[in-house]
Recover the amino acids of this structure.
C-alpha cells in the first residue's frame, strides 16, 4: 500500500468514526430526552403523590407503607424523586427494617434499568456501603451480596478483614468466602479450601464450583472426584469444574471412573455423559483401551443405565 | 528506599510512597514503580494493585508529573475501569509540567467513562475504612482537574456544557461540570458560555512526546531474535506450533490479551479491534501476506476452546493466518522477548497494559502500539509505512 493510499484510508476511517460517534451521541441524546419527557409526564400524575406521602410518613404502620411500596414498584425507576426517597428510607437507621428492606429491593430492581438509574448509581453504591455495617442482618446481607457481585473494593476489604480476624464479618463466614470468590482476581483459593474442608454438602459443592476458576485447584478437584466417601452432588460438581478447568485431565479421569464397576453409578453416568457430549471425540474414540473397556461396561447389566450409556457411546463411534 | 517486592506489607508500600511524595527530587523512584511487571506487584491481587497504583499516581500531584509517568496517567484516564485509579490519575495531572492542553481529551474521556460508574473514593490516607473522613468521587476529581487547568482546558468547554445537560450524571456532577466550565471561562477572561471551543482531538490522536502510538521500534526490550525463541504455542484448535513456525514466515500483527480480563476497554476491545483490523487487512488484499495473532497472558486458564470462543464472539475469523495462542512452553521467554506489560497475582493477571506489536518476517518487533488505545487505521498506516521502507 502506498503512503498516499494509506493516508486516504486513514482519512476515510477517521471520517467514518467521527460520523458514527456523532450519530451515537445524537441517538443517546434522543433516548435520554424521550425518557425525560416520559418522566415529566409521570411527575404530573397527581394520583401517585398521596402514595409518596404515605411512604414517607414513619408514623404509619410498616405494613401499610410496604404495601404502598409494592404498588409503586412499576413507577420507581422512572421518577428521580422516588429513587431519592427510597435511598433516604434505606439509609435511615431509625426507620422500620421491613420498610427499609422493601425499599432496598425496589432500588435493586430499579438499578437494572441501567440508563435511567445512571444518575443514582453513585448514591446507591454509597447507601449499600453504609448498610454493610447496619444492625439489621437482612439489610446487611442484601447489601453485601449486591456489592460483592459488583466486585466493590470496600466490601471486599471488609470481608477479607473479617475472615482474617481483623474486623467484624457482616455475614456468616461461609457466605463471606463465597461472596469474595465472586471475584476470581483475588486470592480466594485458600478460603475455598477452608470452605471445602469444613462446610456442609451444599457449601462444599459451592466451594468446588468456585474452584473451577483456579488452575492451581486442579489436583484438589481430581481428588474430590476420586473420593468415594464424598457426597455424590459434590463429586458431580467436581467433574463439571474439572472439565471446565482442564478438559484433558478430566477426560483421563472420567475414563477411569466410567469403566470402574466398583464406583457409584451416578458418578459413572456423569463421566460417560460428559465424555459423550462434551469430550474431545478424537480422545474418546481414538483411545482403543478405553473403547475396549467400554465394551465390557456395555455388557455389564449390574448397572443398566451405565451399560446403556456405554453402548450409546460405542454406537456413536465414527466407525459405526 | 528499601526494595519493594511481593513480601512488602501494603502499609510499608504506602509509607514508601509517602516518603517519595515528600521528596520531589526522588520522583523517578515513583516512576520506577509504575510498570506492571516490577517485583512490587508480583503475587498481589488486582484489588491490591489498584489500591497501590491509585495512591501512587496521586503522589505525582506533589512531586510534579515527569514525562515518563505520563503514559500511565493517560492510560488510566483513557481506559481505566477502577474509579480509584482514574481519580488518582486525574489528581496526578495537577502536577503536570509544561502545557496540559493535550491531556484534556483524556480527562474528558474519563468523564465519559465514569458516567454511571462513579464511586466515592478518598485519598485521605492509604487503604482507609468506610465511612471516609474526606470523601470525594472520581468524577469530582476529574472535573476539579479540568477546572483547575483554566484556559488550558478551553477545548473542553463545549463538551462540559453539553455534558452538564445530560441527565445521565447526578445533579451534583452536573453542577461541578458547570463550575469547571465557569473556571475555564474566567481564566480565559470571558464567560464560559461565550467561548467558541475547538473540538477536542480524539483521545488516541497521540499526545505528548514519547506517548504517540505506532512508533517504529529501533531497539526493543527483548534481546533474543524471534527465530531463536524456544516457545511452544497452542492455538484455538489445540494445534501446537513453535513461535518461529508461525511468526518467522511472514510479517505479523500480534496483540496480547486474556479472557478473564474484566476491563471492557482493554482485552475485549483489543480483540474486537483486532477483528476489525483483520477485516481491513483482507479488504486491502493483504491476507496471506500479513498474519494476525493474539496471545494470552493467562496460558494456564485460557485453554483452546476459550481462545476460540473469545475471538469468534468478537468477530475474529480464524484460519491459517489468523490464530489465537497460548504458550504451553516458554512463556517467560516470550514475556521477555516482548517486554510484556503484565503482572500476576495469586490466581491470574493482576494488571496489564494494552499491547499490540508489528513483527517482521523474522519475528522481530518493528513497531508497537502500547498502553494507549490504537485504532485499526493507525495500525494499517504504520504497516504501509513499514512496507514502503
Amino acid at each position: 500500500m502506498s503512503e498516499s493510499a494509506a493516508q486516504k484510508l486513514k482519512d476515510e476511517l477517521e471520517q467514518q468514526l467521527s460520523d458514527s460517534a456523532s450519530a451515537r451521541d445524537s441517538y443517546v441524546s434522543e433516548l435520554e430526552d424521550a425518557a425525560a419527557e416520559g418522566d415529566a409526564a409521570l411527575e404530573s400524575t397527581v394520583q401517585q403523590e398521596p402514595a409518596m406521602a404515605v411512604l414517607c410518613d414513619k408514623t404509619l404502620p410498616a405494613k401499610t407503607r410496604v404495601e404502598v411500596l409494592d404498588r409503586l414498584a412499576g413507577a420507581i425507576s422512572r421518577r428521580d424523586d422516588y429513587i431519592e426517597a427510597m435511598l433516604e428510607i434505606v439509609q435511615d437507621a431509625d426507620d422500620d427494617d421491613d420498610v427499609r428492606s422493601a425499599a432496598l429491593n425496589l432500588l435493586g430492581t430499579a438499578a437494572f434499568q441501567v440508563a435511567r438509574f445512571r444518575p443514582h448509581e453513585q448514591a446507591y453504591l454509597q447507601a449499600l456501603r453504609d448498610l454493610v455495617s447496619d444492625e439489621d442482618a437482612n439489610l446487611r446481607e442484601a447489601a453485601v451480596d449486591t456489592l460483592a457481585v459488583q466486585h466493590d473494593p470496600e466490601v471486599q476489604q471488609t470481608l477479607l478483614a473479617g475472615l482474617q480476624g481483623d474486623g467484624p464479618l457482616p455475614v456468616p463466614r461461609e457466605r463471606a468466602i463465597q461472596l469474595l470468590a465472586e471475584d476470581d482476581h483475588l486470592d480466594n483459593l485458600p478460603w475455598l479450601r477452608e470452605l471445602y474442608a469444613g462446610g456442609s454438602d451444599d457449601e462444599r459443592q459451592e466451594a468446588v464450583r468456585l474452584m473451577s476458576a483456579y488452575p492451581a485447584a486442579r489436583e484438589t478437584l481430581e481428588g474430590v472426584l476420586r473420593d468415594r466417601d464424598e457426597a455424590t452432588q459434590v463429586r458431580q460438581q467436581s467433574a463439571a469444574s474439572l472439565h471446565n478447568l482442564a478438559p484433558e485431565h478430566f477426560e483421563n479421569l472420567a475414563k477411569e471412573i466410567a469403566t470402574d464397576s466398583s464406583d457409584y453409578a451416578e458418578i459413572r453416568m456423569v463421566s460417560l455423559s460428559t465424555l459423550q457430549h462434551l469430550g474431545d471425540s478424537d480422545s474418546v474414540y481414538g483411545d482403543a483401551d478405553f473403547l475396549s473397556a467400554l465394551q465390557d461396561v456395555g455388557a455389564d447389566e449390574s448397572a443398566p443405565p451405565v451399560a446403556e450409556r456405554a453402548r450409546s457411546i460405542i454406537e456413536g463411534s465414527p466407525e459405526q | 528506599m528499601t526494595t519493594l517486592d511481593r513480601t512488602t506489607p501494603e502499609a510499608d508500600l504506602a509509607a514508601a510512597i509517602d516518603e517519595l511524595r515528600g521528596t520531589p527530587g526522588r520522583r523517578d523512584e515513583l516512576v520506577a514503580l509504575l510498570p506492571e511487571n516490577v517485583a512490587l506487584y508480583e503475587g498481589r491481587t488486582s484489588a491490591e494493585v489498584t489500591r497501590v497504583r491509585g495512591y501512587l499516581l496521586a503522589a505525582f500531584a506533589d512531586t510534579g508529573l515527569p514525562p515518563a509517568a505520563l503514559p500511565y496517567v493517560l492510560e488510566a484516564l483513557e481506559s481505566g475501569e477502577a474509579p480509584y485509579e482514574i481519580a488518582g490519575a486525574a489528581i496526578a495531572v495537577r502536577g503536570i509540567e509544561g502545557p496540559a492542553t493535550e491531556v484534556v481529551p483524556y480527562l474528558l474521556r474519563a468523564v465519559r467513562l465514569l458516567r454511571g460508574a462513579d464511586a466515592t473514593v478518598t485519598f485521605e490516607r492509604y487503604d482507609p475504612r468506610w465511612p471516609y473522613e474526606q470523601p470525594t468521587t472520581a468524577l469530582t476529581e476529574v472535573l476539579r482537574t479540568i477546572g483547575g487547568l483554566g484556559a488550558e482546558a478551553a477545548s473542553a468547554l463545549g463538551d462540559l456544557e453539553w455534558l452538564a445537560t445530560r441527565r445521565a450524571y447526578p445533579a451534583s456532577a452536573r453542577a461541578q461540570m458547570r463550575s469547571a466550565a465557569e473556571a475555564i471561562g474566567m481564566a480565559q477572561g470571558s464567560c464560559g458560555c461565550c467561548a467558541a471551543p475547538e473540538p477536542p482531538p480524539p483521545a488516541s490522536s497521540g499526545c505528548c512526546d514519547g506517548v504517540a502510538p505506532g512508533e517504529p521500534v529501533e531497539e526493543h526490550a527483548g534481546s533474543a531474535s524471534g527465530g531463536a525463541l524456544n516457545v511452544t504455542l497452542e492455538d484455538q484448535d489445540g494445534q501446537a506450533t513453535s513461535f518461529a513456525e508461525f511468526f518467522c514466515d511472514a510479517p505479523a500483527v500480534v496483540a496480547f490479551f486474556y479472557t478473564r480480563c474484566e476491563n471492557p476497554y482493554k482485552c475485549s476491545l483489543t480483540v474486537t479491534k483486532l477483528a476489525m483490523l483483520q477485516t481491513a487487512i483482507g479488504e486491502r488484499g493483504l491476507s496471506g501476506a500479513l498474519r494476525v495473532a493474539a496471545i494470552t497472558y493467562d496460558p494456564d486458564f485460557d485453554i483452546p476452546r476459550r481462545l476460540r470462543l473469545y475471538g469468534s464472539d468478537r468477530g475474529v475469523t480464524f484460519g491459517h493466518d489468523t490464530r489465537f495462542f497460548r504458550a504451553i512452553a516458554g512463556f517467560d521467554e516470550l514475556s521477555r522477548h516482548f517486554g510484556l506489560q503484565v503482572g500476576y497475582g495469586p490466581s491470574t493477571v493482576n494488571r496489564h497494559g494494552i499491547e499490540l506489536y508489528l513483527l517482521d518476517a523474522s519475528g522481530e518487533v518493528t513497531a508497537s502500539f502500547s498502553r494507549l488505545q490504537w485504532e485499526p487505521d493507525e495500525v494499517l498506516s504504520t504497516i504501509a509505512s513499514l512496507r514502503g521502507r
